[in-house]
Specification:
The chain has 294 residues and is mostly beta strands. It is 6% helix and 43% strand. It has one helix at 2-19; strands at 31-35, 41-46, 50-55, 60-65, 71-75, 78-79, 83-85, 90-96, 99-101, 110-111, 116-122, 124-128, 136-137, 143-148, 151-155, 163-164, 173-176, 180-184, 192-193, 202-205, 209-213, 221-222, 231-234, 238-245, 250-251, 260-263, 267-273, 279-280, 289-292. The protein has an 11-stranded mixed sheet with strand order 4-3-2-7-10-13-16-19-22-25-28, with no helix packed on it. Strands 1-5-8-11-14-17-20-23-26-29 form a 10-stranded parallel sheet, with no helix packed on it. It has an 8-stranded parallel sheet with strand order 6-9-12-15-18-21-24-27, with no helix packed on it. Strand 3 (50-55) and strand 4 form a beta hairpin.
Length: 294
């Protein structure tokens, strides 16, 4: 009799718990959407496990736990406001129809110095920065991955890369696996890689349609003026790289060597200008270590 009563109570308890709403799993991602046309967006770390987003002309704050799985979508029309992901932050960000122009007001359209960002492209996006800044600033110490099915045009200000380092800044760890990406450096900056007096950093392209145009004295993909290409690996995608005057298509900027360049796949077109190699060193630069297979 006692056993039957115990089983009945157990069954009732099970039914009650089944009717209660399920608690969210700790690993579930938190998702937020912000309109950049409403104001600057700053994504920062609070403590060890909370991501905070501050945005708007008048500061507004949203916080979310689960730093590693944070998902943020940024939308907006043409604006002079910018996006900043602070150093130490890891975040998954989708750009959807964003058009940021800071070429006149100055500053950086999208600055992720010291951060780790998995960037997904949706729709058509444009980033244009002012003097000494990259269009999408991912310098040494930053880790950037670009994918998705959308488009991105990134234009650096004078002395900045299209994607990579700003003035005196080498490129960070930059990986492109999808999307349509067009990057143009300002004077002395690479299309993708280093800003003025900065090396290419570590650049990996495994997919997507990528066009990179160096500013005068900068490489299409690789070093800015005076520096080497760094570590460049291309294994897939359709890649077109054009050096600015004195810069290699893929490799060193003016007076910079090619660095370590490995091409194992994809469709690659590289053009250097004025004594610079298509693949290798810029004007007055050594060829570097070049491996091409497939």
């Amino acid at each position: 009799m006692k056993r039957k009563r115990f089983l009945s109570l157990l069954l009732c308890a099970a039914l009650i718990f089944a009717l209660l709403p399920a608690a969210p799993a700790a690993s579930d991602p938190a998702e937020f959407t912000f309109d950049v046309s409403e104001g600057n967006i700053t994504i920062q770390k609070v403590g060890d496990s909370v991501l905070q987003v501050v945005y708007g002309p008048a500061p507004q704050t949203t916080t979310a736990p689960f730093l590693e799985t944070q998902e943020i979508t940024i939308i907006g029309t043409t604006t002079s406001y910018g996006v900043k992901v602070e150093s130490g932050v890891k975040a998954k960000i989708t750009l959807s129809g964003v058009d940021i122009d800071r070429s006149i007001s100055g500053g950086c359209a999208f600055d992720m110095t010291g951060a780790t960002v998995e960037l997904t492209l949706a729709g058509v996006n444009n980033l244009k920065s002012g003097f000494a800044n990259a269009g999408l600033q991912a310098p040494s110490g930053a880790k950037l991955t670009i994918g998705g099915e959308g488009e991105l045009t990134a234009i650096g200000g004078s002395q900045g890369a299209g994607i990579g380092g700003g003035e005196l800044g080498s490129g960070g760890d930059i990986t492109i696996s999808g999307g349509t990406v067009a990057a143009s450096g300002g004077s002395d900056g690479a299309g993708i890689g280093g800003g003025e007096l900065g090396s290419g950093g570590e650049i990996t392209i495994s997919g997507g349609m990528v066009t990179a145009n160096g500013g005068d004295w900068g490489a299409g993909i690789g070093g800015g003026e005076g520096f080497s290409g760094g570590e460049i690996t291309i294994s897939g995608g359709m890649v077109t790289a054009n050096g600015g005057d004195w810069g290699a298509g893929i490799g060193g900027g003016n007076n910079g060597d090619g660095g370590n360049i490995t091409i194992t796949g994809g469709t690659v077109t590289a053009t250097g200008v004025l004594n610079a190699a298509g693949i290798g060193g810029g004007n007055n630069g050594d060829g570097g270590n070049i491996t091409i297979t497939g």
